[in-house]
């Protein structure tokens, strides 16, 4: 059995008819399961899927890596698209993905919304929401990792609104999708706010498989300094140097990571 990952939304594009934007979405499938991983920033996720010959009506589920707007911005358009076809697909994510969040870039600037473009009630009306903070086996090969155990150097970004009040946002909902193949694990990440090495370690623990063959998605390194990137290189090498397809929020660092292959909208990857 093989895995196919089609990049629908990314900061870069490999095709003139697919418009790049600062967001991420991928169509992921094997012989048994068809998933949409993240939804990008707006309705272009639907347009790009159509241009790439992908029928979203056949999806088994939508999976969110986390609740930031550049990964959930396509939800309103998808609710309308599925609703007009009488469909209400499952939506799998950490419970925190649906909470309000914002950030103030400077003390003198206005708050900037970071969370989903819709309230949780509207999302629940359009999808069969299945929130989970624990790992969820979606098939014999696919697994949603749930909450990644926190590390000592995990940063916060903005503020998240919880029932007990606003708190500094450690982005506990940041997660990943894992596929178990013949060559090892393929990890699909949205932004890796929890750290890609923490994701790799959690994927190993959840699946019981030590070998990680490939990592696809954002690594959140656009503001990282050279020393941080160098330490990450060494950490990846200690974990077997998986092949990387780092994109979206990886920034300049993707040119300095080991075994990196550049991708963008329109790229189609195959794994076994």
What is the compact description of this entry?
The protein is an alpha/beta fold and 272 residues long. The protein contains 6 helices and 17 strands.
The low-confidence parts are none
Question: Which descriptor suits the 3D outline?
Answer: globular
Give the averaged pLDDT, no decimals.
Answer: 96
Q: Give the biggest beta sheet.
A: 7 strands, mixed
Instruction: Provide the helix percentage.
Output: 10-25%
Order of helices and strands: EEEHEHHEEEHEEEEEEEHEHEE
Radius of gyration: 17 Å
Strand order of the largest sheet: 8-5-4-3-2-1-17
- Given the helix and strand composition, which structural class is it? alpha/beta
Could you tell me how far the N terminus lies from the C terminus, measured between alpha carbons in angstroms?
6 Å
Please give a structural write-up.
The protein is of the alpha/beta class. Helix content is 19%, strand content 27%. A hairpin with a 4-residue loop joins strand 9 and strand 10.
